[in-house]
Specification:
Blueprint lengths: L23 E3 L4 E4 L6 H7 L3 H6 L7 H17 L2 E8 L4 E11 L4 E8 L8 H17 L3 E7 L3 H9 L3 E12 L2 E11 L3
Parallel strand pairs: 5-6
Antiparallel strand pairs: 1-2, 2-3, 3-4, 4-5, 6-8, 7-8
Helix pairs in contact: 1-3
Amino acid sequence: MTRVLSTPPAMISGCLATAPRHVLAVADSGLLLRPWEAADAGAFLSAYADEETRRWHTHRPSTETQVREWFEGYRRDWEREKGCHWAVARVSGEVLGRMALRGLDFDDGVANVAYWVLPDARGAGVATRALAAVSAWALDDIGFHRLELDHSTRNHASCRVATKAGYRLEGTKRNAAVHDDGRHDMHLHARVRGD
């Protein structure tokens, strides 16, 4: 069924599909956000072998073949304007983490952000700087009006990343997500254009 709006859409369809899959430089950090490459499959899979990553992410791959299938899905997401997925990497190519925009809603100009970083990159500001770069691109260059992210209320590191990157805590979604150890309350953070 086609959705009929009484107001014009906040964003024009095609703003992502016609753009190249962006490489974003993270200012003064030696970091890039770039599309995932087949050679990154091992690093991506290793993230989900980490206990902390597994604790917060229940949708996870089990083989490098599956990871490469995900990468192909990420490419299709970009073309279909369903999502944007990046490897957070050093300029040298070493993968440090993941950044994504999902649930793109051009009618309302809203998207959801997701991220993780590998254990060796934690505590060095990698996630915060990458999140700030993606947010500036999405809000200022692409034209989204609001970006949201949520995380378990028990995930204090993710809460710090969100807050440092300018995402205000808006509330708690009670019993909102299933993790390996049961249901969790989720903090909802958001950043809007002009924050």
